[in-house]
Amino acid sequence: MIKISTTFKTRQPLHAFLLAAVLMACAPSGLAQPVDATVPAASAPTITISGADRQLDENLRAHLRVLSEPCSAEQRRLDRLLPEVTRDVERAAQALGYYQLRQQAGFTAGTPCWALAIDVTPGEPVRFGPPQINITAGQYSGSILLPNGEIEEIDPFARLLAESPVREGAQLLHSNYEDLKSSLSAVAVEHGYFAARFNRSELSVDLQRNVADVTIDFDPGDRYQFGTINITPIEELSSRLIARFLPFVEGSPYSSEMLIKLRESLNDSQYFSQVAVTPQLSMNQAGGTYGGDRQQAGSHRGGRVVPVTIELTPRARRSWSAGLGVTTDIGPRLTLAYQDHYFNRSGHRLKADAALSPARQEPNLSYVIPMRNPATESLSISTGYLGQQTDAFNSDTYRVGVSYRSIVDAWLLGNEWLRNIYTNFQRENSVINDLREQSNLTISGINWARTQSDDPIFPTRGWRLFGQISGASNAFVSDMSFLQLHASGKFIHSFGPGRLLLRAEAATTIVDALEELPVTIRFFTGGDQTVRGYQFNSLGALNELGEVIGGKHLLTGSAEYDFEVRPGWKMAVFYDVGNSFADFAAIQLHKGVGVGVRWMSPIGPIRADLGMGVGSSTEKDSFRLHITMGPDL
Asked: CB-hemisphere CA count at 13 Å for 147?
């Protein structure tokens, strides 16, 4: 039986243990660990290994020290190196669990360089038996007292143990065993167990049973708690507002994750140009237990604490921005924005923005109030105007409303969704097919949105989802009643040499008659973002004269594939389908196909698509150019 063990007889600070682990890793070892290495191709020895799978082959090559021998080495010199080769092969194989490996090796001197042939029969690898991992009971269990008064139960080691590859029946890899020990130490540090130690850590290989037995007795020791939280006062914002960003309170169990979350929240708040959140680890000290509610904050034998210092530099109070863009749907567009980032010391914000183009004018003004958790909640009071001029209709819409935005967990869909609950009063004047309409509506609704991607500008994989329920009632300051459901999504994933982009949108409206709906509540399709190959908003339900009047329902979809043709440039092919309609029994989907070019510019992708409508439409078999800018998600 072979044993590899590390046992500490006295409690040591974790930093001492980590230093010892580093020194042990650097010292010569009886068992080689897999590492990456390559052999130069030019004037290099020829190494031939037979009988090994890819993983074993790579590890054997990585640990052959004879590769440093000059190409001119004589046969006698090479033959004397065979015992060293045998030992290297044995160590490299045992690192991957092959303790029963048989081998034959031989050198051949030659020109331009010598060659080495190794034939191995790995045999059955050693496998882990049931790991005996004990984390001292009662030392690390506890709870976190959250700022909202709720208690969150914790077990910081449970996920690590559940996901560890050190499990019964798995092939023995010595690196997995060492990684498990390192991970236990890392998790201990992240959660404030600064006096953690291994009472016993042992890996025993029983060659008769062909089983590796793992025994680990890990004592996390005392868990440190957050001590005094010192917020450096700033004139621009109140300390009470800044304290509401804290995801922990004094007396909560220490967690580096909570410190990272706090730093990210303060950075994302747009109040500050610089954020420093510093745990005073050198200042932790023993003390008495906390009284009152703080006594519920977790295990605190000895009451060791880590004070936290928060230093903030406020950003400039006001900012302005302007931008230019162009799309074929709405033409050239000018955007202007102004923001007062802290209108008062309570962190209220004033925002004004405008997007102006020949087809669409949209100025808005809003006053934003941070709520109980300013990192995830805000209340906005806003007003705005939307003017639209298209071939299908013209409209002028004036709006005033209030909305509550928060980051929430969505049922069955995971966490960190942006939820928006709103009520808007709008007055709309419109002209469609020479028919003038006017409406007053109080529209209330709720929507959820979330985007995930591996890159915010040029993602290779990611997705975006949006869902909304909205409506109005003639019993509450509205000319009519309706209920509308709306959902959309986009999915991007690497596929072959390029990317596959899928997009879908669906909506339905419950209303007595289509003609009752104001124009801006109806659905139209066609254009850059829906069905390419057709003019913007040129598709929809038709009246008796064949004129587009929009629809109660909407259904669109798109499949696109793009691939790089040279650095910074991509080609794309696409297929779009969709329409809006007045009745499910009269669905008529229009189709568009085409090709496109993408330039990955410094400000984001710029797309030029040439699409052709292939549906039953007056635009059938006609080509249309579509130009768009902005991120894919």
From this structure: 16
Note whether 620 and 614 are within 8 A (CB).
Answer: yes
Q: Measuring CA to CA, which residue among 250, 251, 234 is closest to residue 242?
A: 234
Q: How far apart are CA 348 and CA 583, in angstroms?
A: 46
Residues 454 and 560 in one domain: yes
Question: Are the CB atoms for 375 and 356 separated by under 8 Å?
Answer: no
Report DSSP state, residue 179. H
Residue 4: both structure tokens together:
């590899």
The reported pLDDT for the residue numbered 621 is 53
Helix (H, G, I), strand (E, B) or coil at 422: strand
Q: Are 55 and 35 in contact (CB under 8 A)?
A: no
Q: What is the pLDDT of residue 159?
A: 84
DSSP state of 175: H
| pLDDT of res. 35 | 42
296 and 414 part of one domain: no
For position 49, what pLDDT does the model report?
95
Q: Which residues in the chain land under pLDDT 50?
A: 5-41, 138, 141-153, 284-302
Q: Report phi then psi at 329, rounded to 5.
A: -70, -50
Q: E strand or H helix at 187, and its extent?
A: helix 174-190
Largest CA distance in the chain: 102
Query: Is residue 197 one of the residues assigned to a domain?
Result: no
**Burial bucket for residue 136 (CB in 10 Å: 0-12, 13-18, 19+):** middle
**Is there a contact between 469 and 446 (Cβ–Cβ < 8 Å)?**
yes
pLDDT at 487: 97
Alpha carbon distance 482, 473 (integer Å): 7
Domain that includes residue 527, residue range: 403-629
Contact 369, 379 (CB under 8 A): yes
Would you give the DSSP letter of residue 65? G
Write down the pLDDT at residue 4: 52
Q: Please report the beta strands in 1-123, taking only residues with DSSP state E, as ranges in sequence order.
A: 2-6, 46-50, 102-108, 115-121
Sort residue 143 into left (φ over 0), alpha (ψ -120 to 50) or beta: beta
The whole model's pTM is what? Answer: 0.76
Residue 578 has a pLDDT of 95
Strand order in the sheet with 46-50: 46-50, 115-121, 102-108
Does residue 180 sit within a domain? Answer: no
Q: How far apart are CA 221 and CA 194, in angstroms?
A: 8
Among 420, 460, 381, 630, which residue's Cα sits nearest to residue 528?
630
Does residue 101 contact residue 120 with C-beta atoms inside 8 Å? yes
Last residue of a domain, one of 314, 340, 370: 314
216 in helix, strand or coil? strand
Question: How many beta carbons lie within 10 A of that of residue 577, not counting itself?
Answer: 20
The residue type found at 206 is D
Q: Please, are residues 540 and 392 in contact by the beta-carbon 8 Å criterion?
A: yes
Tell me, rounded to whole angstroms, the distance of Cα 138 from its chain centroid: 34
The single-letter DSSP state of residue 346 is: T
